[in-house]
Specification:
The protein is an alpha/beta fold. It has ten helices and twelve strands. The chain is 32% helix and 14% strand. Helix 5 runs parallel beside helix 6. It is elongated and about 60 Å long.
Length: 332
């Protein structure tokens, strides 16, 4: 018999390898929740049976690959990622099988945006532009999603001009709210004093900012990345710094190298590194747990969850974002 006041939706939680979400999630769901946990790193013969009996799948940071447990012939109808870095290809596959998919971007984005804004100001100071009025700056946002819009909103409120590039058609209200103008990637790079990267995990993400894109940027511009480390070609960025093309770089994420060898941007005078995972903070963990509990209850009631992930489509000819350096044929 279902227990009154509890979550009856049969939910399987797969924590990541360094996941601290389990206790906050259990607290948010309450003692009567129909919740099972699975260590994805030590799969057993019971794994498939446990997944087959579940109706919802919650994946901790680092456990995104476990989305394969939501197979076509199972009972799982809802997949909740507790981070923001899930693969678009994995999400598209889940959605193609009729599953509802959400992530925790609505509650994580403000914290990542706060970190990004701090890095932008630090990078501007390192580039010798501390005294320059913000109202004179053009802030370029690569990816106007949950984090990008928060960063854009902050700088729009203090008078900066906002331009952005996104392969998706952004919800119009977002761009209008901050007065953001949509450009191709090339045009945005040519005009921006600050380029802030907020891309998701898609086939186009690796090296989206590489040698060609760096050569298009304004001389002395600053580059900030708090999304995915592979979005930047770090060797090309190091060369742009050495040549004086870039004024400064600020990173919230970096590539890792074999045997803990330093990367091309390690120890650079004009590079700020403040590596931070928002989901490690207690206040964020509690917010994520509350969101997950809220979403499970909404799905159980037949309502859409917060953080619902829209299918990612790629633009066609005629869309302004088609004429980017990554989506259109171009000369080197």
């Amino acid at each position: 018999m279902p227990q009154a006041g509890g979550l009856n939706l049969k939910t399987l939680f797969v924590p990541g390898p360094y996941d601290n979400l389990a206790l906050p999630l259990k607290g948010a769901l309450g003692p009567n929740a129909n919740l099972s946990s699975l260590d994805y790193g030590t799969l057993s013969d019971d794994t498939s049976q446990l997944a087959a009996r579940s109706e919802a799948l919650v994946l901790g940071p680092g456990a995104e690959a476990a989305c394969e447990l939501a197979s076509e012939d199972g009972e799982i109808q809802f997949v909740q990622f507790t981070g923001c870095r899930q693969s678009s290809l994995a999400v598209n596959a889940l959605q193609a099988n009729g599953l509802t998919v959400a992530n925790a971007a609505p509650v994580i984005a403000p914290f990542v945006a706060e970190h990004t804004v701090s890095l932008i100001h630090a990078a501007l100071a390192l580039a010798g532009q501390r005294a320059r009025p913000i109202s004179e700056l053009v802030i370029g946002i690569v990816g106007l999603g949950n984090v990008g819009i928060e960063v854009a909103r902050h700088f729009a409120e203090v008078g900066a001009s906002i331009v952005y590039h996104d392969i998706r058609t952004v919800v119009q209200g977002y761009a209008t709210e901050v007065g953001a103008r949509r450009h191709s990637l090339d045009r945005m790079l040519l005009n921006a004093d600050v380029v802030s990267v907020h891309v998701s995990d898609t086939p186009h993400t690796p090296g989206v900012i590489s040698d060609r894109e760096l050569k298009l940027m304004k001389s002395g511009a600053v580059l900030v990345n708090t999304s995915l480390p592979e979005a930047l070609d770090e060797s090309d960025v190091a060369q742009a710094l050495a040549s004086g093309k870039l004024g400064a770089v600020a990173l919230g994420v970096m590539e890792t190298y074999p045997d803990s060898q330093p990367g091309p941007l390690s120890g650079q005078d004009k590079v700020i590194t403040e590596l931070s995972d928002a989901t490690d903070r207690e206040v964020v963990l509690k917010a994520v747990a509350a969101l997950v509990a809220h979403n499970l209850k909404r799905v159980e009631a037949g309502d859409p969850p917060r953080g619902l992930i829209d299918p990612v489509g790629f633009p066609g000819v005629g869309d302004p974002s088609f004429w980017s350096s990554r989506l259109a044929p171009r000369q080197p």
